[in-house]
Known about the structure:
Layout: E1 4-5, E2 9-10, H1 11-41, H2 54-66, H3 68-94, H4 97-126, E3 131-135, E4 138-142, H5 148-189, E5 191-195, E6 198-201
Amino acid sequence: MSRHFCFCIPVRAGVFLFSLLSFALSTLCAGLGWILFHLIETNQLSKIEDKMTQSDKEAFENAVHKYKWAVILGSIIFTFVALISFFGFVGSIVRNRRMVKAYSFMTVISFLLTSFAAGFVLYATYSHKPFCVTIDGKETCTNNNLSVGEKIGVTVGIVIQWLIQLYIVTIIRRYYRQLEDEREYRHDFRLNPTGAGTYEAKEGLLAPQAAAYPYADAQHSFGSHA
Length: 226
């Protein structure tokens, strides 16, 4: 039986859409990360510094050279997410349980990491401690100057985003459970798939036909000859 979300949309369609968007966005981020890494390695950062002031250029170049490992790590992570999202996309099309399971596991890990990041943002929003970064022995600090209304807006936005991500994880898990139930159903009743969402039994599910009642034959009936 097909499961749904938002009252009427099949969870399979949700996985198809979410995996496609995840694949597109993560591929874009991974591509930008690898391009930035190439520019760092070939000393061509000037190609993306046209609209920066001289001080901003120096700060940007110092930061990306010092934290080049973060650029590499981020590019690898987004590449991995793009790959798993592609598995989920293909899995939703061909109804492959293992591909959808891998995509579901990745979304759970991503949700946990995002929740940790959201908690850190909320802490930084309500904390009055300055955030400092040291580059080449020079410390730069930024202070939290948000008003009460801005803090509430940030909090509401983070909570809404967290709930949406949780709902997406639930939808993907629900579709994976649907594929699991279908696999168990086919195994229990020895069914073969004959089409998208349809199955054909190797043996009938109804009780075998009972033997004919002997006294129902004409020769055993009395009728008008009684």
